[in-house]
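Researcher: We're reviewing a set of sequences before deciding which ones to prioritize for further study. For each one, I'd like a predicted 3D structure that I can look through quickly. This is Damage-inducible protein DinB. If possible, include the structure in token form so it fits the rest of the review sheet.
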Amino acid sequence: MNTTATGTKQFITSEQLLGHWQGHRNLTRRVIEMFPEKELFEFSIGGMRPFAKMAVELISMAGPALKGIVETQTDAYSEEAFKPATKEEILKKWDEETDEINRYFNQIPEARFQETFNLFGQYEFPVYQNIMYFVDNEIHHRAQGFVYLRALGIDPPFFWERF
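Model: Here's the predicted structure for Damage-inducible protein DinB, in token form for your review sheet.
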């Protein structure tokens, strides 16, 4: 099979990408809300972390990563700074990070999405791939949350209902 190199054509705008990501964040927030408080912090299956720890990972990564991209900083991220004790604290921080994501995402010029960036000093990929990693990572952890909810006898929201 022969392939021909062609110019890159845009099939999604940065605004659409952000909307897609925020749709996923809306759904993950709903999953957090569905957990009973105790189980959010304690329930696990097969040695996986409780969902609260997964949520803290997502909170600790996305906003700081976008700030790093905008400010060209490659500092490592840390899950140690935020230690919530309640579901309400997680939801409050989730909303704050959503605002941070919006603020920093909108500061990334279109041309930068194709630039390689060493995220957290560890991952050398184009900016758009780093952003797709955040979305993929969130979907992965939310799926674990879905399994936990089902194990607890709670029907999770439909995965396609993101808004």
